[in-house]
Design brief:
Radius of gyration: 19 Å
Largest sheet: 7 strands, mixed
CATH architecture of the largest domain: 3-Layer(aba) Sandwich
Oligomer: single chain
CATH topology of the largest domain: Rossmann fold
Strand order of the largest sheet: 5-4-3-6-7-10-8
Number of helices: 9
Strand content: 15-25%
CATH class of the largest domain: Alpha Beta
Number of domains: 2
Number of strands: 10
């Protein structure tokens, strides 16, 4: 598992935390794991020990080649080089340490997939955004909370990485409730670009009319999703 930042990569070096992350996934011999970001492979052998199959994808060619040699004798491991977020591999469990710059897009990618559960490590700041309620919510919070049951499994101090990053991380555990399509995700993001405007003014831009004094930011997550679905249905007629 690796953490990419603009100025470099930060690798998890704590084996005890790696084992905790794998334990949180509650793997069985029926599970196929997709790990995006093999890194130096601190998680990979533990995943292989518990799961039926592990597909681990690494974008860094040198790290991929090193892992290919290091784990060549693990029969249930399929190592790949490339962009994991462009894969069409099927999986039941998703494991990744998400770069902060890609965390939102990665979450949106995940909730389009059919999976059972996911364990992802993100920067603490991004994790906190997913749990914000009220007017400070972001679209990604509404989407992820609608599509999954999400909890913060553990906090990880920055000292557990090398090189040491500037911030701490959080490990999130997600269980899928619903799979969302790309169009719905796009519409929810669009609605949030008008979140401080009143509903009649917002929906007018989508060719719909409603009487209300509420703004997008006043609605519950379920209400926002419902409006997004209505917009998509009307546009597809």
């Amino acid at each position: 598992m690796k953490k990419q930042k603009r100025l470099g990569q930060h690798f998890l070096i704590s084996e005890s935390i790696a084992k905790s992350i794998v334990g949180a996934a509650e793997l069985t011999k029926k599970d196929t794991v997709l790990e995006i970001g093999t890194g130096k492979g601190i998680l990979t052998p533990f995943l292989c020990k518990e799961a039926k199959k592990v597909i681990s994808i690494e974008s860094d060619k040198k790290l991929y080649l090193k892992s290919s040699l290091k784990f060549s004798k693990i029969s249930n491991l399929n190592l790949k080089h490339g962009n994991g977020f462009k894969t069409n591999e099927k999986f039941t469990v998703f494991i990744s340490n998400l770069p902060f710059s890609q965390s939102r897009k990665a979450m949106e990618w995940l909730i389009e997939k059919r999976f059972s559960r996911a364990i992802v490590m993100v920067q603490k700041e991004f994790a906190e955004k997913l749990f914000v309620t009220g007017k400070k919510r972001r679209a990604v919070s509404v989407l992820v909370n609608y599509a999954t049951d999400i909890q913060c499994f553990m906090s990880v101090n920055k000292s557990n990485f090398y090189p040491i990053p500037r911030v701490d991380s959080s490990v999130l555990k997600l269980k899928r409730k619903k799979t969302l399509n790309k169009k719905l995700i796009k519409t929810v993001n669009k609605l949030f670009s008008y979140k401080r405007k009143k509903l009649p003014n917002v929906l007018k831009q989508f060719g719909q009319y409603i009487e209300s004094e509420k703004r997008i930011e006043d609605l519950t997550g379920d209400e926002i999703i419902k409006i997004a679905k209505q917009i998509n249905r009307k546009q597809s007629v």
